[in-house]
Amino acid sequence: MGPSLQALENQYFLLRSSLPTLTAQGATQDQLDTLRSLIVQARTNYWTALNKTLHDDDPAVVALTSQMNAEQMNIVAAVQHLGNIAKVLDLITKAVDIGSQIVAKAVSL
Q1: 27 Cβ partners below 8 Å, 6+ apart?
Q2: Closest CA to 100 of 57, 45, 26, 19
Q3: Measured distance CA(19)–CA(11) in Å, rounded
Q4: Would 31 disulfide with which of 27, 41, 75, 102, CB 3.0-4.6 Å?
Q5: DSSP string covering 7-71, please?
Q6: Distance separating alpha carbons of residues 92 and 39, to the nearest angstrom
């Protein structure tokens, strides 16, 4: 598994595992709905990437993967030190958007 696909997989599992924490911290129903939607998008990105070819030697893919990994570290820190659920959702949204950009660079088999 290449670095970009691994990053997409990591993102999906990170977001899925963050749902109980955010639920326990009192996220509103709208916030939880947003998070669930982002989890679905992350899963779609991952599964789409599995069915296509990502070129990890493409500088754009390398840069996006690096950005996404950095955003995921921010998400982990934000969830661990949860203070503002809206801020966490903003970080998650940005990371999932980057994941979608990576998948957009994939080549169909």
Answers
A1: 35, 85
A2: 45
A3: 13
A4: 27
A5: HHHHHHHHHHHHHHHHHHTT--HHHHHHHHHHHHHHHHHHHHHHTEE--TTSHHHHHHHHHHHHH
A6: 9
**Residue 40 corresponds to which amino acid?**
V
Helix (H) or strand (E) holding 107, with range, is strand 107-108
User: How many residues would you count in the chain?
Assistant: 109
pTM: 0.84
Beta bridge partners of 107: 53
Single out the residue of 100, 79, 81 nearest to residue 90, CA to CA. 79
